[in-house]
Design a protein that fits this description.
The chain has 68 residues and is an all-alpha fold. It contains three helices and no strands. α2 packs antiparallel against α3. The radius of gyration is 13 Å and the shape is globular.
Amino acid sequence: MDIMNLTALEIGAKIKAGELSSVEAVQASLDAIAAKEPACKSFTSVQAELALEQAKLVQEKIRKGELS
């Protein structure tokens, strides 16, 4: 599955169904940014560590049933 070809709604549905984790979704986005940024120069800042940290927190809340 190419996560970057999914819509935000499709990604959300797959996360909710357990087919994809929030960490995987964020990592796919970061990988796409890293691959295209040298040519696009679209970002002034990419906080990859913070994004992954937040994704891990969200995934833990999903695991605990605190988010649905």
